[in-house]
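Input (PucR family transcriptional regulator):
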Amino acid sequence: MTTTPAPVAAPAPRITVRQALDLPVLRRGMPDVLAGADRLDRPIRWVHAGEVDYIASMLRGGELLLTTGLGIGKRVADQRRFVAGLADKGIAALAIELGHSFPTMPDAIVQSARQHDLPLVALHREVPFVSVTEAIHREIVHAHYALLRRGDDVHRRLTELLLAGQGIPEVLAATAELVDNPVFLEDGDGRLLFHAAGPHHAGDATPVDPLDAWTAAKGDGRAPWRAGLAAPVPHGPSQAAGRLLALPLRGPLDERAEVVLERAAGIVALSLLRARQEEELVARERGDFLVDLAAGRIAGRDAQRQARSIGFAPAGPQLLPVAAESDAAAGSAAWSLVLRDAQTELDGRGTVALIGQRGRPGRLLGLVALREDQDRAAVADGVADALRTAAGRRLGAGELLVAVGLPVAWPDAGRGLQLTEETASAAASLPPARWHDAGALELQRLLWRWRDDAEVAAFVRRRLGALLEHDAQRKHALLPTLEALCANGWRKAETARALHLNRQALYNRLTRLEQLLGVDLSDPEQTMTVHLALRALPYVEPDATTAGPRVRG
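Output:
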């Protein structure tokens, strides 16, 4: 949905009616609020004093009007008309000094003020109106300078982030913290580029998800949380301006928030124009959603709705989790272009996919729509090829490891992503493949999760330690023979052919292996433990020269 960016008006310094009544000069007048007590947080733009019945025509709105009542009149109709005229102008409050015209406040004025929700204040003692005007105007000027200082502080803090090497995501996170509400960066078409949720408060038992609020805020309605602030973010001379939007989910957004948003929008605009980070932000936004989903921070019932808000709306019920890893020396911006190219390729094939960056550059996570009439292997081939081709075109050399999970529905998408992500990490020690099947690598994934477990390391050391020590001290290693035997189902003839050995040579090696390992390789129970130790070896490898394990990261 295309939205028109709403500019931020110049923030107006303010003092509220309540704050004005707390000033010493007004407190000396013994103020008494007779109407509009629930409207005392109205801001005062200016102070005016006057004694004519047409005073409303001289006002613009937002004033605190001071009067002794000389121009109001004694008739009930005049009194009601006087108050109604002020209410129509939108003044902040009416303060009448009793004693000169009215010993007590007339009922008609009180009732009319209540009818129009206009704060009405009775001053029981005489106060110099000029002193009140000076005091409030002084507060307004001080507020103005405070806002200017606030703007300078915000600009300095956000600029320091960029100078320290941080990017737009960190600027938005700092902005959300400053306004204590979520902020959203949109492009000129209303597409969400990135969002920052802001700090989590301990009292937020069931916080509103920012993506849900952003989607709902585009609809009709006058709910308070829709009354956000927006600042334009230019994207270049030939592009429509985007906007930086803040939504008041945790609390109201005041003029200080306006200053923060305005300064942040300027910083973001400069960064976008300099580095063209739109695609990088999209990749990060999608990656953050997928990471949160995999970590269980998004409930399955909410995931489909939130995915739709960032542009992923598959027609079918089945999803294919995907994870990829590469050590190619490239930054986040380069990988965002890889994802853009891969997305374009998949779109051309009619494959609906959501793929984003996770963690460091080169670590990807995704969900791919799988229709009932589609073959999982064919779709997995297409996704792996698209990612690998895009990475090769943009980054040159460098192997891209791809893992594909089993089909899942939305309620199980998070768990499927987590298993596929772990499979990608576990497959790093396996021979290269077009893509690694998470369903066929359950044991490897489980052992990878136990890579830091001391018991597993001790088990591998007990089973294989003597063999590893032997190979470290001799030219002809025996570990490849054991691995080939395991890979060929412990069948000797197939193992001999795989190693290009005659049978007697293989038997000599097997005898030596049995001696070193202290096992009978014809015993299925013992070969199973050796097999498990071999599978665990790439993840927890005992060092042949020490008693302890050397754990791979």
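The first strand starts at residue 15 and ends at 16.
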